[in-house]
Amino acid sequence: MGHLILAIVLLFVALLAVVSVIRQLKYKNLFALAFSALTALAFGFFSIATIISEIAG
């Protein structure tokens, strides 16, 4: 149960990072865009991996 809560928090952070990617594309800030994209990929990967791990048992 604790890991599922962690996965939901990680997924929420990943979604916020995706919002930041869209915003940085609008502002054309490439440095912040790179960090936002890396954050979205990393947190998204770990949240999906945690959810799959919890479902698979």
Automatic annotation (TrEMBL):
The chain crosses the membrane at residues 30-52. Keywords: Membrane, Transmembrane, Transmembrane helix. This is DUF2759 family protein.
